[in-house]
Write a structure and sequence with these properties.
4 copies of one chain form a homotetramer.
Chain A: E1 4-13, E2 19-27, E3 36-40, H1 48-62, E4 69-72, H2 77-81, E5 83-84, E6 87-88, H3 109-117, H4 123-142, H5 150-162, E7 167-174, E8 176-177, E9 180-184, H6 188-191, E10 198-202, H7 210-227, E11 237-245, H8 251-267, E12 284-287, E13 291-295, E14 300-304, E15 319-322, E16 334-337, E17 343-348, E18 353-354, E19 359-365, E20 368-369
Parallel strand pairs in A: 3-4, 3-7, 7-11, 9-10, 10-12
Antiparallel strand pairs in A: 1-2, 2-4, 5-6, 8-17, 9-11, 12-20, 13-19, 14-15, 14-18, 15-16, 17-19
Helix pairs in contact in A: 1-8, 3-4, 3-7, 4-5
One zinc ion is lined by residues 43, 46, 101, 172 of chain B.
Pfam family, one (chains A, B, C, D): AstE_AspA_cat
Domain Succinylglutamate desuccinylase/Aspartoacylase catalytic (chains A, B, C, D): 32-266
InterPro entries (chains A, B, C, D): AstE_AspA_cat (IPR055438), N-alpha-Ac-DABA_deacetylase (IPR053138)
């Protein structure tokens, strides 16, 4: 039998003295399954993941997980509660501009040392040693007499929980966006299980995001062991799911993404097999360096023409840029934005008014059908 | 024959010394029709009106207006260019919080004086005197040794152009919004011509907006003359059109609103009659005090349930407010927002995360079918 | 003997479900003195009043007040905790632009009714009736099925406490500012007691601020009674104190302002007489319509030249406006800002870069020595 | 004889179609001296450097430079003109959060290639080749069919000018700050000439700032040549000067910093020797890893106690953090911030209200007297 409990974790303190807290829901595993950590809404405007967690709570109540599960909805109160005009200014710290999802910890120098010292240790012992070493570093950082940044207070406390898990899922959304998934390349064969149409396959680099902070140590450890002649699998899976558009909550449609996650969790042995009915989805993928941003070539007001999630041929217009300052003049009143390659638009900017250099779109280029995909 | 010209008007200066300018397009009238002033985008995120002006330019090129027409797209460069995160922070001056559309001028003390001094003057003379007196006041304000606010530099310079017109249209949008129209009650019989589904009938008060600044002097003059026994019609018509949602540009659909405006202009003698094909639209109206804002009773994340522009019966849910901090607790996880009266939702808030007291919806209550409406 | 207690009052709820609370400190009066309400920091960047309240707590512990005292430091958590860059964006609601100190309640239609119904009632009964009537209105507003704005949730709950007091002090600061005091004209003879150098004498209008919401009902009641032949004094005193510059905390210097308040409270019978040593201060005053804002005549970067709080003769430069875009050109590289009248600069803008129309200074004009002032 | 000219450079375009431009002032060198590039105000609130450029223009008019000089005041119009409340939000792009001074270009892979191909080339030829190669890369970036970011449009166009210079100075300020200088370690012996009290000695890393983008290629080239046995000096000097506090303009005091720059330029042969009278200044330095940020251990309101620029002994309080929510409770009402090491505070945060993790101070630790310093 599973037990579920809920608690709040203090992750900061406001100028007024109010504690900043996040809700933490824990299911105790019924058996020996892998442990799972899932969080949502670290970017303040990206609310849809909370609805997915809502469905996962219901699902785990019916289908008890075999490993421990830790769920953190509304993971970033500072980001969620920060408004500027009618929108949530939730992507970066409004004081420093630092992205809330670039402040997790990983010190790569640990890895070689550990590969050396635990070259012949049993897998479980290696894993425990890496978790232990990273935990010590995180605690030391939090205890520094010089202090740490607000974003690190939050990120490091979340990471201490995520660090204990074998599977880490970070639920985001894009601005105006189709659903897409960041897949570490070692786990590409499992990506299709989530049933997400667009997939970006990423390398083992660390730039501060939670998925990277969760898989990079284990991936680099696997590589370091391999260099020493030992085949050690990457012991942790971590994915970032982008569940559509920001500032949009649709609890009914969140169920499909919860079911995709459940299918993935079944494949990893967290959940027992049971029937899951998922919509048929055509799945595409490309590598991270083929996932390209397109910046506006000029200022103007934008009609976003290309539907998200569907292939667009080279030289087909993605957007029309209007120059309403040129009405009734001989100047060009609008121009089309076209690319020299076939693309699938993944997301576009949230505003209709852009200056030169605004990121208008992100697109898959050199994309291919994801292996394992449902559709023939 | 009509002539069209375009120019830029300086409406301010940046800290860096750059002039702040707006485009001004002028059609010279072919005959003795009323003069028209139309502006768009005084709120920086409300771009759709620019596309309507684009269609009006094309339309006036084919169908020359009989009176002079002045068109100002992108009327507020400061608002349009001010971003905060991915959205335009364009509703109020980011320094002071003052709404860009509350800074026009009207000094009601003029009216009684003028009614007295011109009680028996011909209509044209009365009109010229009021325009003259208001122009003098605006110029004096701009020339004050103490200076005027940034918002007034903009508003007063726009108003000097609008002041010359017999018809003033100010093109806006709501946040996430159905199309709606602010109608001064003396002009209610003409409102249906715009073919806008939702209509709010307003009194002669002045709170600083362009429509009010344009009709209030003439309305109050009409009243002051009436009190002295002279029947003087309200000589100026002014409307605020709200053309859907902010941050959204759709040039094709803007054509319908341009045609609605053309139909109204035909009825006023600005355009000669020609065939206009407008979609059939059910039109509702209510008075301003029955146009109600609904503020969130608590904090939470919102599913906006009620479709905009359609009647919702009393006690039918408009929104569901989620408390994802209560997942896996015994606390209430969501609640519905209901109202004790029948309403038509006009617009809703742009973000899914709201604190207690956020304006969630604006709704028509005690609404009725607009007279003259197309639909039987 | 006095007793002191502290509590927190819920004034709102965040999107994440966290209650928004303010601290409330209450001293129970030892005798029959007037009751007092003092709050600070309703504008988020204006922190110095909190330090004054700190000193008042210490002072009341030594010198028990005879009437009940209610103290609310950090009265606006939403404003205090809202950062944009390195500064507190605390003057207005970041969603709507509405000033946090313009959302208090007063319905003037109450007054005539009450003057009529209580024309011959004893003073205490009149006062109780007005407090009762206003409390009922505030409760009804808060209970509306349509809800109220975030700023009203805060303001109305604070006002319910302030409404019970005979003396209301609202502690603010300017941007970069000399200390100044807003004085309702009926209380001008008492203003000097606060020992604040610059004083602005205001009429009985209501525009939504706490001081106005506190004195206007009583002032208008006094006038309405007078019109009916009864001499009823204004039963409540209310002042807004501006204690220097925002974003600046100096606890030691706050003591002088606490002593000024104590001297005023002694004069009203809240505190017993005891020796108070206050610095000698030259005190000036002018009426509200002579308290003038000066808006920048152009864009540029500013050297603020005139020391705050000291008389500046007509045509003496207050600031130099630099045009660094004109370096090495034949254009004007800087210009001086001068006024045609003698002034005392009270405050200036917080930034060095201004667009045309930015409020550069506020100044006393047609100022005079405050009566009762210490200095011969 | 020198000639001076001024021009404007287009560095972007607003949504409204307005070009974004920066002023560019050029002095033609009288002889064979090194060329110089100096810019100011790339961070929008940091205005004081513009006044230094003003003095340099006057100085160069009297004392013609021997090499070409390019001066760019107000280098970032987007940053300067972006207000949020009464302050300039000028440190990062308000859309993306990216620091305006982290977007310059350097592709380190160029260097090894160039060291190989030009191992025996004359110095001037090597320099020309590196400038040529970097220019080609920058042009290619600007011409990408995918576009570049707004911040890169600005940075790359500025960098194309800076790239031509032998000496690059980037004029900044801190938030509330003492004057300090970032010194590449190879140039430490020249640092004292600027007469700036606090100096931070930095390594050859590249993180996107202009000083790094200017010296890193030449420094790494020198190292790469050294590894191949050729002694090539670092051919470009680049410094970031931090000239006090942001949002503060003092043209008179800017003269001293202009004179410090002149003294440095004399030592490099840009200016002929002439008498310069500089104030005596005690100069300290530490290495970048000893330049430490201190983050607030809790939320609260801050009294900044330690004077900037002066040594503070270990355990001496730097600040007092107040908890005004704890007034009249048994909780701690304030705490002191102390460090376990001797420090010199360089700058502190601009606001008095901070959440946990806000950067309160930056301090020199393990500091030492700068060599060459004036003071005995
Ligand atoms: Zn995200
Ligand atoms: Zn609008
Ligand atoms: Zn204030
Ligand atoms: Zn800087």
């Amino acid at each position: 039998m599973t037990t579920v409990s809920s608690d709040t974790l203090i992750v900061g303190q406001q100028a007024t003295g109010t504690d900043i807290t996040v809700p933490v829901i824990r299911f105790t595993g019924t058996g020996n399954g892998p442990s799972v950590y899932i969080q949502a809404n670290i970017h303040g405007a990206e609310v849809q993941g909370n609805a997915v967690i809502h469905h996962l709570v219901e699902l785990f109540n019916c289908h008890p997980p075999k490993g421990d599960v830790c769920l953190v909805p509304m993971a970033n109160p500072l980001g969620i509660n920060q408004k500027s005009g009618e929108f949530t200014l939730g992507r970066f710290d409004p004081i420093t501009g630092e992205n809330w999802n670039r402040q997790y910890h990983f010190d790569a120098s640990l890895i070689d040392q550990l590969a050396q010292s635990h070259l012949n240790a049993p897998e479980a012992e290696v894993a425990a040693a890496l978790r232990q070493a990273m935990g010590v570093q995180i605690d030391a950082k939090l205890a520094s007499p010089f202090g740490v940044k607000s974003g690190q207070h939050l990120a490091l406390r979340l990471q201490k929980m995520a660090l204990q898990a074998d599977i880490v899922l970070d639920l985001h959304t894009g601005p105006i966006s189709a659903r897409h998934l960041y897949v570490p390349s070692y786990a590409e064969e499992r990506a299709h299980l989530f049933n997400i149409p667009l997939n970006i396959v990423i390398p083992s680099d660390f730039a501060g995001a939670l998925d990277e902070a969760s898989f990079s140590p284990w991936w680099q450890l696997s590589d370091a062991m391999a260099a020493r002649g030992r085949a050690l699998p990457v012991l942790v899976d971590a994915f970032t799911l982008e569940l559509g558009s920001q500032e949009y909550l649709n609890v009914a449609s969140a169920r499909d993404d919860a079911l995709g996650i459940a299918r993935y969790l079944q494949s990893r042995g967290v959940l027992d097999p049971f029937e899951l009915t998922l919509p048929k989805t055509t799945q595409y993928a490309c590598s991270l360096d083929n996932y390209r941003a397109i910046y506006s070539p000029c200022g103007g007001q934008i009609e976003y023409l290309a539907p998200l999630g569907e292939p667009v041929s080279a030289e087909h217009p993605l957007a029309r840029i209007w120059h309403f300052d040129a009405l009734a003049t001989s100047l060009q009143q609008s121009r089309e934005l076209r690319l020299p390659v076939d693309v699938i638009p993944v997301l576009h900017f949230a505003s209709a008014s852009v200056r030169q250099g605004t990121e208008l779109y992100k697109v898959l280029t050199h994309y291919y059908r994801l292996s394992g995909s449902d559709v023939s």
